[in-house]
Structures are given as C-alpha cells and as structure tokens.
Write a structure and sequence with these properties.
1232 residues, mainly alpha, two-stranded antiparallel sheet, 2 strands, globular
C-alpha cells in the first residue's frame, strides 16, 4: 500500500470518530489530499471515501457538513463515473428529505458536483442523471416550495452548463417546467422563467414551437399569471432571440398592447418593454415595421413618474444640491419602467443607425429633458442612451462631413443645434453628490466634444467650475478625479487655447494637485492633462503675461514626479513625455531649470524600461523651434544612442534614428568626429530589405552627415555603400525609401570625398546591369537584376546626372545611354536601363538637342521583350515632358498613323498627362493640347484591343482632372453609345478621376457619377464589370461621391452576385465548364466588401447578409471574400450574424469537408484548397467570440464536428495560436 493510500485509510477511520473535532480535521486533511494532482485512488478506496462523505452530509455538526460538501468538488475529478452517479442519486434523494438542513446541504452538494464536471464523457451521464432526478422532483404533486426553488436553481445550472448534453431529456424538462409558470408562488414562477431561458438555447425546433405556442396561448387569453408569461417571453427573447424572428408579427403587437394597458402594474409594463428591447436587438430586420411604435411607447413611458412633480423642483432656487435624496417612496416601481424605456431606446439606436436623423428629431430632445431624472440608476441609463447616439454619430461621421452637404439636415447639424440644451440639462448634474452621476456627465460631454470639436466654447465658464470642484473637493474618490481629468484633457484638446486663458491659474492649480495625488492612476491622468496644458498655456503667437509663472508651476510639479524612481511605469513614462513637451515649448522661460531636467533625461535614457519614451521626448525637444541647449547631455547621450541601434526593439531603433537626425540638423557643432565614426559603424547592418523603413532612416542619417560633417564620409565606402548597393537591387525598394536612396547618393557626391565621386558612384550603380554576375542576377531570370532594381538604379543615376554632375559628366551619361540604344549588340537589360534613365532625365531637362531622339526611343518598340517596350513608352512620355511643343505633336501623329504601336504610344501619352499634372505651370501648357488629345482619344474608344481601350480610359480620366468643366459633360454623352466598347471605356475613365485627396472635379463628379453608374444595368457583361470596378474604386477612395446614390446602386450590385453564365468548352476530347459571369461576381463581391467598410450606414444589413450567403456557396475566390466580410460583420453587427448563423455555418462545414478532386493533383490547387480552409477557420474563430454564441445549439454541434476531425482540429488550434488565443478562451467547451 502506498503512503498516500495508507494516509487516506487513516483519515477514513478518523472521519467516523465520535469526536466532531477529529472528524473536522480528517476532512480538512482529506481535502488537501484530493486537491493533489498526483493522487490516484484504487476502486476500494474510492468507494469508502464516497460512502463516508455521503454519511457526513447528515452529520449533526454544521461545520463538518459544510466541509464534507466542499470535499465533493475535488472528489468528482478523482473517482469513476459510476461513483459520481451514485453521489448524484444520494444527493437527489436527500433533496426530498423532510430535514431542511439536509436539503440545503444536498443542494450545495449538487451545485458543487455540477461546477466540477469538466470532461464531456463524465458530464453527459451525470448531468442526465441529475436532470432525471430534478424532473421527477418538479413533477411531484405536493412538493414543498423550498424544494421546488432549490430544484429549479440546480436545473438552471445544469441547463446552463450542459444543456446540449441532456437533449434526450429536453421534452421531459420542458413538460415539467411549463406548468410551474402558473404556480401560485412568484419566486417559483421567476426561477422557472430563468430555467426556461437556459433550456431554449438548446432545444429542438419542434420543442421550441411547442413552448412558444404554450406561452402565446396564455398571452392571448391572459390569466392572473400574465406577468409571468411576459417575463418568460422576455427571458426567451434574451436567450434565443435569433429563433424569435418569425414569431414577432404575433408577439410584438400583443406585448405592445400590454405595455399600454398595464395600468398601475409597473412590473408588467417593465417586462413588456424589456421584451421589445430584446426583440429590437436580436431581430432588427424583422422589427423594422414596429420601430416607430416602439419609439412611441419608449418616449411615452420614459417620462412616466406619477408620484413626483418635476415642475415644483424647477421653481426652487438653483443651488445645485441633490434635493432628490430627501424623496423616498419604497412602493414606487415606476423607475423600472423608465429604466427599461431608456434601454429600449439605446437598443434602437444601436440596431438602426440609419435612423439617426429621426432619432435626433424625436428621441434626443426627450432624453435631454430627462437628464433631470430623480432616480440615479435611471439617470445613468439615460446618459448611456445619449452616449449611444453620440457614438453612432461618431461612427458615421466620415460619411457626413463633405462641406457642400453641411447645409443639409444631417446628424451633425442636428446635434449642433442641441448642444446648448445638452449643457443646460447637465448643468445641475455636474454638481450632483453622486460620483457616478458626475462621471457619466463628464463621459457624455467628452463624447460630445469628440464628435463635434469646439462645440462647448460658449459654455466653458459653466464646465470648468464643475471640473475644479470635482478635482479639489477634499476626500473626492479617485474615480471621479480620473473621469474629471480625462474630460478636461479632451476639452483642452478639442478647443482653441484662447477660451481657457482667463481660468488657467485655477485649472492648473487643480491639475497640479492631481499630479501630487497618491494614487498612480490619478497621477498618470493628471500628467496627460499637464502635457495638454503646455500647448494651452503657450499657444503659437501668444503674449500671455502669465506664461512664466504658469510654466514654472507645471515644471516643478512634473519634475517632482520625474525625479522619483519607485513610481509605476505608466507614471514614469508620462512624466518624461510631459517634461519633453514642456521644455520644447517653454525652454526659453526655464533656462535655469535645464541643468536640473536634462541630466534626468540622461538617467532615464540609461534605464532599459524608460529609454524608448525618453528617446521620443528628446526628439520632441530637439525639433523645437526654441533651439533648446542640449550640449549638457549630448556628449554622453550620443554614444548611448548609437548602442540602441543594435537592439532588436524596432520601435526603439526607429525613434533613435529620428532623434539622431534631429540632433545632426541642429547640434552638429557639438558632435565630434570620433562620435560620428562610432555611429557610422552601426549603420550598415540597418540597411537591408528586411526593414525598408529603418533603412530609409539610416540613409537619411548618412545624407545628413554628408551635409553637416563631410569629413566623416571616409568610412562610408567600406560599410554603408556596399549595403546600399545591395539594397538598391531589392524589389522592395520603392516609394519614400527609394527617394531616400537617391538623396543618399547625391549627398555622397556633394561631400567631395575622393572615393565618392560622380564617376565612381555611377560605376558602382551600373556594374550589375552591364556586368551581371551570379551574385547579383536573380535566379531563372533573363534580366541582369530584378525588374524593380532597374527603376531604382535609373532613378539614382537620373538624380545624380541632374543634380551632381558637371556638364561634361552629364553629356557623357546621355551619350552612353543613346549609344546603348543605337547598338544592336546590347542586351535587353542594358536597353531597359538606358530607356528608364533617359526618361528620368528627360522629364526634368530638355533633351531635344539630341537629334532624332524620339526615333531612337521608338525603335525599342520593336523589341521582343515586353519590359523594354514598356520602358520605351515611359521614356518617350517623360522625354516629351521636357519639350512638350516638340514631341507631343509627333506622338499624336504616330498614334493616328501607326496602329501597331497604338498601345505603347497611348502609354507614352498617359505618362505625359500624369507628369504634366503635377505642377500648375505645366497644366497651363498642357491645356493648349487638350482639345487635340481629347478628339484623338474619343476616336480610339472603340478600339478592338482591350489594352488600348484601358489606356484610352486612363488618358481620358486624367485629362478630365485638368479640364473637367468642359470634358465631363462631353464624356457623359457617350454612356448611351451603341458601342459596348465605348461604354466600357467611358465608365473606366471615371475610375481615374477619383483620388483620395480632394480634387476640383469632386463637386461636379458628385452630380454626374450616378448617371455614369447607371451602366451597372447595361446589357453587356463587360460594361457592367467595368462599372463595378469603377464603383469599387470610388467606394474605397471617396465614398462621399456615391453615398446619395446607394439606394439605386445596391440592387444592381446585388443582382451581379447571382448571375451565372455557364457553358462548356471543348478542348480535344475533354469538355471544361466556363462561367462567363465569374469575373463580374468577383467584382461585385469586392464592391460589397468595400461598401461594408465605407458606406455601412447606407446598407440594409439583412439584405446584405442574404447575398453573403450566396457568396459562401460560390467558387473559392468569392468564398474567401465572403469570409472577410463575415469577419468584419462580427464586429459591426454580431446580432445580425447570430440571426443568420445556421445559413453561414452550413457552407463553412461544406468547405471543411471538401476534398481536392483527383483530376487536379497540382501543388497550386492543393495550396488553394488549404488557404480556403484557413480563411474559413479564421471566420470560425471570429464567430466564436460573439457573446452568447456558445449557447447556440447549431454552433455547439458545428464545433463538435469540427473538433472530431483531426485535420480541422489542428487547423483550428493553428488559427487560435495565430490570433494569440487559446482553446480555453473560446466560448464553447467541446472536448474530444
């Protein structure tokens, strides 16, 4: 016998001892043993422990009984299932005992057993056994009330935790529960409703229908138990609202009738309104026809307070005292009705954001009038409801702000007219004795000013005294201080500094008092406010005479916190940041204090925890226009910064490089050559394609050094230059990183270093092009470097030739490039490079002195390589920019006379229009040629080549940006052209006129775009596809253009998601299916995804979901788009997803069950199927995070089957890890 078994045997003997103290101590030791994970019990010991514990449940000593019950919990996990079932049987029988004490202990025991059941293999039989016992007890004719209540509590717990495991007994449980809704005891009826709520989450549709019929029969023919049935409907709607949709036309009118006819029965009226609220949240689509009626009911009863006269309160002196504390009426339950109305209105606001304008018209004024509500809990709910309105306004704010629409009636405009009423309504509440009331006021006002910046300017004198009082009142709680400070910071950030100047001393005094608080959260928030106050105390161009005194006060308060070493991390960081902004804005007033503050920054720089925050703060100081004297710390700080570049922390590296750049701009005179040389040694490892942003900043540092300390360039050729030459061959070098690279090479030449001359650098740059080697040439590529590397290298050579070369060096470069093009022996790589470089130079300098240049370039149109042809178009277009009068007429003539080169010449024209549109003077020059180009482009809109039509469309679109007033109406006339090619070109041209940044064409385009998008109804498939592409581009870049047309656009968009034009194509002996409408459907679903991001408030979410369901059953590419939409909708409207959950999960299940067909054993196809499943699993993980989805029977069943399959189980775990989640965090508990 093991020592553990022997010890337990000894304990069992003591548990039978006559002395209660021995029994108690033995149970304590047994509890300790059972809690050990290593404990293993043999069958005989299990039986003895179970028997002894069950006996002790009836012990005469209460302490022994309680401890015996507690032992049952850990015991459940240590014994076999049949033992647990036996324990359940005994406890169930004890519940029918006449002994009240034994019943109570047994109830506790059953609860303990239920809480410790984790394994589904054990939980299933045990929970079924418990259900069976409870069902028998509840149907016992003369069961005592107390036993009924305890049985219902346990039944609720079982159904809540294991409802899906006791499906075989659902019919018996429901049959036992329904009669109890008519029990004479209120407590029994209420607990029965709770149990039914948990039951409906898992019952079958047939049982659900039976339940609803029973409830509805009692609503239609009401009895004295009507309120219980209303409560039951409320509970059902909250737990299974997604199953309620098709019952609403019967239920809602009846419930609304009860809300009106309840008389003085406030509990009944409250329950009825709660039912309406739940239905609005769970079934917003089906509730649309009842929304107006529900709003009427809510607005009517939110003012329902029959026992209180608010008018008499208004006549009293306005001393801002909480007089309502004197009022009390324990029997008055009308506050529950008002609270339920506030919550119902909040549900409508959340579910129907498209009704914001109507809400501001009807609901907002009533809510504002109820800010005076006497009951505190109701008042908080009213504040919360109004906050919901503000949050909905904020979420749709981007869609409402176009300036030319501001004169219309929009939520923002309506809110602006109600600001005064809001402030006046809250004025008294800001002085309320209740902290939660004041916190809610500050929160609401904070959201208001975030939505409508500057709107509280006229009321600052009302708000600041209330804030000062909340912050300065002795004994004020930390929570009200934090709320006050948070609102004060928001107020300061969203208003002009001028409005605060008269009250600055008082405000600053309160904030400094908070900085000196003892609670770290208050200190942290106060430091944030102090940081914001820095900009208020001394705004730009300010001559405030108080600045000196105020700056000293805020400096001393911040310095006190900056010096302390044993503070919370958050406080340390905010003290550093605040001091950084303070010195950047007021260093000239704090000269004597710099010697105190700056060494502290140096100390914080040495600390690993605070170094990143300190680097950012020093960067702010270094950029200051006050030229703060940092000489005191630069000698030690600069080398320290160099060591930070070796750290793996990317944020630290980026911030350090930014600080170093700022230091080199203003403080290079304090930097020695040895310090710079140490820095240069750190830079090469930062310059790589693994992080182009870090590389960009590192190159900027070298450029800055070449300007401020050219003598430091001696080490560049050995370290930094090779790294830069490697990076320039990367396909990832683009955009701002490429700009930094060109600046870098130009700065090297300007430094005057003998090893960094123009000729040397050009040779280094062009060597991989002219002399390719295995080390520089990409694998399996005919070109000497990557395609992007040609653009990068040519950009650098162009910049060097234009900015750094002597005239002779410049001419030699041009001559060499032309010779390369004229030679017949040159490789495609050399030709490609020469054309791109000529284009880069010709864009900025006239090359017309070189005779027949255009012919030399156009000769490359005959190249067999597409890259060379494209480069020739680029070169011809950019060279023409240098001398438009000479070259543009030639290009126009060639387009008309040479149809074979039409596409390439149109590409060159596009380059001209694009480049000439960058400067105002160039636009004026180009306007002279617009009529000729327009006429030419119109002529080729019907080109049979799709590539040429796309290029024509691009040119037309860019031309309209230059002269939209005359060209846009002309283009509109072609939407009715009989040629489908013309119509598709026209609608594609519109895509090129829509850009993210504001354009002069926008106002006019808003008027016309609806007519262009009528081509979504076109008979031609290709025209509709081009219209969809244009719609997608517009919705992404400038959704304001199409918002007013969404009602007309959406039906056409949805129509494209359903069209399938399948046919079979014969290829030899095989037949392959082809769907001509597939590209249109893809484009339509791409549009839907974009609309979901930019115009969601103009979309009926349930119609939208209907078409997502269609996409979930389409081809893999479309399925993946719909999975992304599901992911987004989970965050936007989870209730809508819950309503459609069954129809979403079924296609997902089919995706996981799909297999790759034997006829397609291709690696790419295998990967496509795997990526589809991964995408589907990401959607499942997102769905699992919807609140209460773990209670949905369809989802539970779905997850069981998912977990039962090894492949999908592994895929699920991988996605959970990728989302930094774990299986335990998911809202279901299904084991193998």
């Amino acid at each position: 016998m093991s020592s553990s078994s022997y010890h337990i045997t000894t304990l069992l003997e003591k548990m039978g001892d006559a002395d209660k103290d021995f029994r108690y101590m033995a149970l304590t030791d047994l509890m300790s043993e059972l809690q050990k994970e290593s404990l293993s019990l043999d069958s005989d010991t299990e039986e003895k422990i179970c028997e002894r514990l069950l006996v002790l449940l009836g012990d005469k000593n209460g302490e022994v009984q309680n401890l015996a019950v507690k032992c049952l919990g850990p015991l459940v996990g240590k014994v076999k299932g049949n033992r647990v079932e036996n324990i359940v049987d005994v406890l169930g029988n004890n519940m029918l005992s006449q002994s009240e004490q034994l019943r109570g202990i047994s109830t506790m025991g059953l609860m303990m057993v239920i809480s410790e059941l984790h394994s589904s293999s054990l939980a299933a039989p045990v929970s079924r056994r418990i259900c069976s016992k409870l069902t028998a007890a509840l149907t016992y004719p003369k069961l005592e009330v107390q036993i009924q209540l305890e049985s219902l509590d346990i039944m609720s717990e079982v159904l809540h935790k294991f409802g899906s495991l006791v499906q075989s007994q659902h019919d018996k449980v429901q049959a036992a529960l329904l009669p109890l809704l008519s029990n004479n005891r209120v407590a029994v009826r209420k607990r029965t409703s709770v149990a039914i709520g948990y039951l409906v989450q898992n019952i079958s549709n047939a049982l659900f229908e039976e339940l609803i019929k029973h409830v509805m029969d009692n609503l239609i023919n009401p009895t004295k138990f009507l309120q219980s049935y209303i409560t039951c409907v409320n509970v059902i709607s909250r737990h299974a609202g997604h199953r309620f949709g098709n019952k609403l036309k019967i239920i809602v009118p009846k419930v609304a009738e009860f809300a009106h006819s309840a008389g003085e029965n406030d509990d009944l009226r409250e329950s009825a309104i709660q039912v309406l609220e739940s239905c609005v949240l769970w079934c917003p689509g089906e509730m649309q026809e009842f929304t107006g009626q529900i709003v009427d009911i809510s607005l009517n009863y939110i003012t329902y307070d029959p026992n209180y006269n608010y008018d008499s309160e208004d006549e009293e002196d306005d001393e801002y005292l909480d007089d309502e504390d004197d009022y009390s009426d324990d029997e008055d339950m009308s506050w529950k009705v008002r609270r339920s109305c506030a919550k119902c209105l909040a549900a409508i606001v959340q579910a129907r954001p498209e009704l914001l304008c109507e809400i501001y018209t009807r609901v907002s004024p009533v809510l504002i009038s109820r800010f005076k509500e006497r009951e505190k809990s109701v008042r908080l709910d009213i504040f919360n409801t109004y906050s919901c309105i503000l949050r909905q306004t904020a979420s749709s704010k981007h869609a409402i702000v176009p300036e030319d629409e501001m004169q219309d009636i929009t939520p923002l405009v309506q809110l602006g007219t109600q600001v005064e009423a809001i402030v006046r309504g809250l004025e008294k509440q800001l002085y309320d004795k209740n902290d939660k009331t004041r916190q809610s006021c500050f929160s609401l006002l904070g959201e208001l000013v975030t939505v409508l910046p500057g709107c509280l300017t006229p009321y600052i004198d009302i708000l600041l005294p209330a804030l000062h009082k909340s912050l300065s009142t002795k004994g004020a709680s930390c929570y009200i201080k934090i709320s006050s400070l948070s609102f004060l910071r928001t107020l300061l950030a969203h208003h002009s500094p001028d409005v605060f100047q008269s009250s600055l001393p008082d405000t600053l005094s309160c904030v400094i008092g908070a900085v000196q608080d003892t609670f770290y959260k208050v200190i942290s928030e106060a430091l944030l406010v102090s940081e914001q106050l820095v900009f208020v105390i001394r705004p730009k161009n300010s001559n405030n005479p108080q600045v000196s005194d105020l700056s000293t006060a805020i400096f001393n308060a911040t310095l006190y916190r900056l010096k302390e070493a044993d503070l919370d991390q958050e406080v340390k960081e905010r003290a550093i940041t605040c001091m950084g902004h303070l010195l950047a804005n007021m260093a000239d007033l704090l000269q004597s204090q710099l010697a105190i503050a700056l060494p502290l920054f140096l100390d914080r720089l040495r600390n690993e925890i605070t170094r990143l925050t300190t680097v950012k703060a020093l960067s702010v100081i270094a950029k200051s226009s006050l030229n703060v004297d940092l000489q005191l710390i630069l000698g030690e700080a600069f080398p320290l910064l160099g060591t930070f570049l070796r750290k793996t922390n990317r944020a630290l590296k980026l911030s350090t490089l930014e600080l170093l750049d700022n230091i080199l701009i203003k403080y290079s005179s304090f930097i020695t050559l040895s310090m710079v040389n140490d820095l240069i040694e750190e830079l090469p490892r930062l310059i790589s394609e693994s992080d182009t942003h870090v590389s960009q900043l590192a190159l900027m540092i070298v450029s800055r050094l070449s300007e401020t300390m050219p003598q430091s360039m001696d080490k560049i050729p050995d370290g930094v230059l090779p790294a830069a030459l490697t990076l320039i061959r990367s396909p990832l070098l683009q955009g701002s990183a490429l700009t930094s690279m060109t600046t870098f090479f130009c700065s090297l030449v300007r430094s005057g270093n003998s090893r960094l001359t123009f000729v040397e650098l050009v040779q280094h740059l062009t060597n991989p092009v002219y002399n390719p080697s295995p080390a520089t040439q990409p694998a399996n590529s005919p070109l000497s470097v990557h395609k992007q590397a040609f653009y990068s290298t040519s950009s650098c050579i162009s910049a060097l030739a234009l900015n750094c070369a002597t005239e002779s060096e410049y001419q030699s470069v041009i001559t060499k490039l032309l010779d390369n093009l004229k030679s017949t022996d040159m490789s495609c790589s050399v030709r490609l490079f020469a054309l791109l470089t000529l284009g880069g130079i010709g864009k900025h300098r006239d090359l017309s002195e070189h005779k027949n240049l255009q012919n030399v370039i156009m000769s490359s149109f005959n190249s067999p390589t597409e890259e060379v042809k494209s480069a020739a178009s680029y070169a011809l277009g950019n060279v023409s920019v240098g001398n438009l009068t000479l070259y543009l007429p030639i290009i126009l003539s060639e387009i008309q006379n040479n149809s074979k080169r039409q596409y390439l010449l149109l590409h060159a024209m596009k380059e001209i229009i694009t480049s000439m549109s960058e400067k105002e003077e160039s636009i004026e020059l180009l306007k002279n040629y617009v009529p000729d180009m327009w006429d030419l482009l119109i002529r080729y809109m019907e080109s049979s080549e799709e590539g040429s039509r796309k290029m024509v469309a691009a040119c037309l679109g860019k031309l309209m940006l230059i002269d939209h007033e005359s060209l846009l109406p002309k283009l509109l006339t072609f939407t009715t052209s009989p040629s489908a090619h013309t119509r598709s070109t026209v609608v594609t041209a519109i895509k090129y006129t829509v850009k993210e940044e504001p354009q002069s064409i926008d106002v006019m385009l808003r008027q016309y775009i609806g007519q262009f998008l009528k081509l979504l109804k076109d008979q031609d498939l290709h025209v509709r596809r081009m219209a969809l592409v244009t719609l997608n581009s517009t919705a992404h870049n400038k959704p304001a253009l199409i918002r007013e047309h969404m009602e007309d656009i959406l039906p056409d968009l949805y129509a494209e998601t359903t069209i399938k034009l399948k046919r079979e194509v014969e290829m030899g002996p095989f037949k392959y299916p082809v769907d001509d409408a597939l590209d249109n459907r893809k484009a339509a679903f791409e549009c839907m995804y974009t609309v979901l991001q930019s115009c969601i408030d103009r979309v009926n979410i349930f119609q939208f979901l209907d078409h997502i369901e269609i996409g979930l059953k389409d081809v893999p590419d479309i399925k993946m788009l719909t999975y992304l939409m599901v992911l987004r909708l989970v965050h936007i409207n989870p209730n809508a997803i819950m309503l459609k959950l069954e129809s979403i999960l079924e296609p997902l299940r089919e995706t996981f069950q799909s297999k790759l067909k034997d006829i397609c054993p291709i690696g790419q196809e295998v990967e496509k199927v795997q990526e589809l499943k991964r995408s589907a699993m990401r959607a499942v993980v997102a769905l699992s995070k919807i609140p209460d989805i773990e209670k949905h029977p369809v989802f539970i069943d779905f997850m069981k089957k998912l977990r039962a399959n090894k492949e999908t189980d592994l895929l699920l775990e991988q996605e959970l890890q990728a989302n930094q989640a774990s299986y335990d965090d998911m809202v279901f508990s299904v084991e193998h």
